[in-house]
Amino acid sequence: MVTLADVAQHAGVSASTVSYVLSGKRSISASTRERVERSIDQLGYHPNAGARALASSKSNILALMVPLRTDMYVPVMMEIAISVATTARAHGYDVLLLTGEEGPATVRRIEGSALADAMILMDVELHDDRLPLLRETGRPAVLIGLPADPSRVSCVDLDFAAAGALCVEHLAGLGHRDIAVIGEAPAVYERHTGFAERTLAGLRERGRELGVRLLHRPCEGSYAAVAATLARVQEERPGTTAFVVQNEAATDPLLALLRQQRRAVPEDVSVMAICPDQVAAHASVPLTAVAVPAQELGRYAVEQVVAKIEGRGSDEVVLLAPELTVRESTGPRP
Amino acid sequence: MVTLADVAQHAGVSASTVSYVLSGKRSISASTRERVERSIDQLGYHPNAGARALASSKSNILALMVPLRTDMYVPVMMEIAISVATTARAHGYDVLLLTGEEGPATVRRIEGSALADAMILMDVELHDDRLPLLRETGRPAVLIGLPADPSRVSCVDLDFAAAGALCVEHLAGLGHRDIAVIGEAPAVYERHTGFAERTLAGLRERGRELGVRLLHRPCEGSYAAVAATLARVQEERPGTTAFVVQNEAATDPLLALLRQQRRAVPEDVSVMAICPDQVAAHASVPLTAVAVPAQELGRYAVEQVVAKIEGRGSDEVVLLAPELTVRESTGPRP
DNA sequence: CTGTGCCGTCGAAGCGCTTCGACGAGCCTA
DNA sequence: TAGGCTCGTCGAAGCGCTTCGACGGCACAG
User: Fold this and answer.
1) Which pLDDT score, from 0 to 100, does residue A318 have?
2) Which end of chain B has the least Cβ crowding within 10 Å, N or C?
3) Which residues touch strand C (CB under 7 A)?
4) Do residues B237 and B178 make contact, with C-beta atoms less than 8 angstroms apart?
5) Could you tell me where in chain B the CATH 1.10.260.40 domains are found?
6) Cis peptide before B276 (omega within 30 of 0)
7) How far apart are the C-alpha atoms of B137 and A206, rounded to whole Å?
8) Tens-digit pLDDT profile for residues A53-106
9) Is the CATH number of domain A61-158+294-320 3.40.50.2300?
10) Which fold has domain B160-292?
């Protein structure tokens, strides 16, 4: 293994000089710099991560806590994770993948071992038990999601309330008066995951303002569950002419079922979704949808947390404005 | 930050004694051990990861390289990643998430910086350019997938050839003589991703043996693409009575399209898939399928790599035997 | 009662890097 | 021409941990 000392010797300078060439924290003459850089290349030197972390108390690692549950909104999670990893690299950081089990204990462990310079948390619950710890330690952290009390942490998320409102507006504008909301699995609501409740609040409020009747039903992602939910909705509110789906896995089954009932989309029923654009665009009927900007969330979270590490940036809550893309699944009320 | 020295002082012993309590590498009297452990708890001590890595040249980190492309077999990837992370924790390791871009350079970087004790690679291509490096460095590595030349590395994967064979057997046993294979996106074959080609080989070989006619068509995961592919297949081989789908995203569209054509599954057409069990079970018609055992792959990869780190275990290729679960989507040829 | 060996503990030497203070050389200013 | 700068470089002191060799104290055998 090539060390700093090897490079120094090879270049005929002292170790500290090599270090300063690498970090740029002191000025180095052009000739020395070049000589050192050549040696680095020739020897194939890479700084030892452990030694560097020890000496500088900076690991250049970001910890990313993802939910353990593999049954929920998986594509979004994956997209965020990948976006986090790529953005982090662009800033010189690597990403540690932590699964959510043992939330607070994991936070403490990472904290105590100084393994990561900062944490990014996904799947945030309204009263998340990792938050008190995070605040206590004071290490930079960013949540992707919005807890009930976002003080002294940073948060990034889609403005789900606005997204909900946008859906209702769009449908109301097309004349719909009875809208059914197919939601995430019941477990998501039971855990008080923020985004689901905020969407609902946004839907309801604008619904009230616009005089639209809403029926909300949580729903598992399987075909059978969607079928059951649809049947219930149609029984309880036969006049329903539009659906808002917030459940990646439910969109395709819903479209299939409607087709089976010979109810044409969008002529007889309108369907819109809150999901990643890719999912919406690839559905059997390209869906009018509010996009969940997974990549941007990941990128923003990293940039925010890096800023904090570097002493710039402060605690703030950023809610990205929702964007509605009209495709082929919504039309005027029949 | 609490250090080893703090614990030692608090417990009234030397630093090395605390270290030995932690590592168990020398015998310690019960009384001393207890005293030290109490101090550790009381002070909330966590060993500094950097210092530990530096002193022991062991980081207790596993690097996991996942593909950058978010458009392919995402659920399997995610499931594997999570399984890797959880299993790794159970063995005392954390997981570094590396996206596949710059493959060889990344391998060299991790290698040189001693950031990880071992690497796990996913999305392995037949002639993967990361392999030569991996062999050269001699650091423990496990591939999830199977390259053309698996010498001097370890590999775990589903036996996709056997999986393909199993599908053909099952369908041939039901009397089908014309089978269409809906494959992954063309790009997957162009990159010579091992699993796709091996499946095809298995399908073809057993097809030949059993006198079954196979028609293979790569296919994007969107509804429109599946529709186009299905149309082509039905035009080219009107007698097709069974489908094998190896493309997570294509199963649901295919079922929906067949339903639309009023071709009942399994009465008129049989459909089977090679995909995670969860996907198969949740489809609109529960699918007879060969499961991709994502969790096991992840778990096995970690156990293998940990064994190598500890000096046990050697280079080997393990192909998990495919398991066929008969559900409701396959039946006798009409 | 002395010699031998083991058990439990300690001190010290690094691991490879960052960073602080020091210092010589060259330059400008007075 | 002496004094004071700045610039570029060096040496040394850690960062917090692991690990090796050493060393007392005790139990046992002779």
Assistant:
1) 92
2) N
3) A 1, 3-5, 15-16, 19-20, 22-23, 25, 45, 47-48, 51-52, 54-56; B 12-17, 20, 26-29, 31-33, 51, 54-55, 57
4) yes
5) 4-47
6) no
7) 61
8) 999 999 999 999 987 775 556 778 888 999 999 999 999 999 999 987 778 899
9) yes
10) Rossmann fold (3.40.50)
